[in-house]
Design goal:
CATH topology of the largest domain: Rossmann fold
Shape: globular
Number of helices: 21
Radius of gyration: 26 Å
Number of strands: 15
CATH superfamily of the largest domain: P-loop containing nucleotide triphosphate hydrolases
């Protein structure tokens, strides 16, 4: 257990106390098979809130509380708060194989993978748990734990109630979403700093979309490591953030190292940090960053969660992302309030504001929870990314059983404009696209059944092409796209049935 003397408990704000009572009332009135998801912006004090909920739950229900995290920093932060408010707790890390002393504790904090390993060996590893609290609940890794606690309440907390995997929506595991204070509301009540946003248009030509739905690290590194992007970054820093403590987020390590080298040539006070650093080196760099007023820290991913440095004055998003969650996590690192800090700066070098709107803008989180596909389509549509010329990237291994080069050689957008320029109906581009897809299927399929399997593999690519086409003709309604997709697949299926069947007979 963490020494209480080393950590002073954070006192709850009025809105936080009200939230604690509301959540406890929800749990009391809905029974043990009820799961609740709670949304609150980064900087709103989720750890303080759910720690207090844990304390009061233990007092009222006389059952234990289990808190799940995905980062060791979050586990330690939570343990300190719990200890400071008088809750006996224990962190279950990789060194904890058994719990012979579990009666001494009323609350346990565990990394999800570690706990899953323990529960696989012993389903009753922690006894008498009544409430499971999931920090950063949008991560899907927590789902594997839920099966062991079906008779418990589950409380998920997150700043962005959107699943990290759009095919596994949060509404599948939570009965209801409780939306907390908005970003604008927290700013108005002086709980968060306000943000001034500076956007610099970036040509994102060459970025590719990976299987996780976001731009790939490789293509991002190629774009953001080049000389012109480094020049644009330095120009933006000198124009907006010169001399201010600055945190730079990059997509890849190669980019971050180039950033460090570019700033060092101009004698700026900068360090680089990524996940390959040892705990010792990381602590030293973060200590330097905290204590140095004009420090610039360029990083990759590692500081998006579990990092709290209120003295940050500028956030530079030196990357493009299609993840609204990541967008909010990065900006949230600069939103902490201090007596001499009522606002901070955001520099956007990835057209992210154009994609998601300003950080302070209202978001209908209930809509995101209930209808995640529709919500994402309206905010991070494929059509938006087409304007930035992001290219489709085939999943790894597809080139082993189909001619990827032939598929990539056909550009439906270019072919559409060629048709129009030559007085041919633009729909001809769709017909040629279908012929291109069918040629690849015919060359690769062993039989008709295998042909249909390949067609299924190609669905994402087919959708990608057709969305390009609907953008070209400015007819991008959901109904028209659905009609176009169904027609395309029906005609392709007919070609497979007729032609591959005939080839087998011959």
């Amino acid at each position: 257990m963490i020494d209480v003397d080393l950590y002073k408990a954070k006192k709850l704000y009025p809105f936080q106390e009200e939230t604690v009572n509301t959540i406890l009332d929800e749990l009391a009135s809905n029974g043990q098979d009820f799961n609740l998801l709670y949304q609150l912006p980064t900087g709103g004090g989720k750890t303080v809130i759910f720690s207090e909920i844990g304390k009061k739950y233990i007092e009222k229900w006389k059952k234990k509380v289990l808190i799940l995290t995905h980062r060791i920093e979050l586990s330690v932060q939570t343990s300190r708060q719990l200890s400071a408010i008088g809750v006996a707790n224990k962190i279950i890390n990789s060194e904890v194989k058994e719990l012979p002393d579990q009666d001494e504790y009323s609350c346990f904090i565990a990394m999800v993978e570690t706990l899953h390993n323990r529960l696989t060996d012993d389903h009753d590893f922690i006894k008498n748990v009544g409430l499971v609290i999931v920090d950063e609940a949008h991560y899907n890794s927590f789902r594997k734990i839920f099966q062991y606690y079906e008779d418990c309440n589950i409380l998920g907390v997150t700043a962005t109630p959107l699943s990290s995997n759009k095919s596994l929506p949060l509404k599948d595991n939570y009965n209801r979403l409780l939306v907390g204070e908005s970003i604008a509301g927290l700013i108005e009540k002086s709980y968060l700093s306000n943000a001034d946003t500076f956007s610099y248009d970036v040509n994102l030509h060459g970025l590719k979309i990976g299987t996780n739905g976001d731009f790939t690290i490789t293509s991002s590194d190629m774009l953001y490591s080049n000389y012109f992007m480094q020049e644009k970054l330095i120009f933006a820093y000198e124009e907006v953030a010169l001399g201010k403590k600055t945190l730079i987020f990059n997509a890849g390590i190669e980019t971050s190292i180039r950033v460090k080298e570019s700033f060092e040539k101009l004698d700026y006070n900068i360090k680089h940090l990524d996940s390959t650093f040892s705990d010792k080196d990381r602590k030293e760099i973060l200590k330097w960053f905290k204590e140095t007023p004009d420090a610039i820290l360029t990083s990759v991913g590692i500081l998006t969660t579990g990092f709290d440095e209120p003295t940050v004055k500028t956030i530079i998003i030196n990357r493009a992302t299609r993840s609204l969650t990541l967008y909010h996590q990065m900006i949230g690192r600069g939103s902490r309030k201090l007596p001499d800090k009522s606002n901070f700066h955001i520099i956007d070098l990835g057209n992210n504001v154009r994609r998601f709107g300003l950080w302070q803008d209202y978001i209908n989180w209930q809509d995101a929870f209930k209808f995640p596909d529709r919500f994402l389509e309206s905010r991070v549509s494929e059509l938006e990314d087409m304007e930035f010329e992001a290219n489709y990237q085939f999943p790894k291994g597809y080139d082993k059983f189909m001619d990827i080069e032939k598929l990539e050689s056909f550009n439906i957008k270019e072919r559409y404009h060629e048709c129009i320029d030559n007085g041919i109906k633009g729909k001809r581009a769709v017909e040629e696209s279908m012929e291109n897809h069918f040629d690849v299927i015919l060359e690769s399929a062993k039989d008709m059944e295998h042909g249909f399997e390949i067609l299924e593999f190609l669905q994402d690519h087919i959708e990608y092409r057709l969305k390009h086409y609907t953008k070209c003709i400015s007819k991008s309604t959901d109904n028209y796209f659905k009609f176009l997709l169904e027609t395309y697949n029906r005609q392709l299926s007919q070609k497979i049935r007729v032609n591959i069947d005939e080839s087998e007979l011959n």
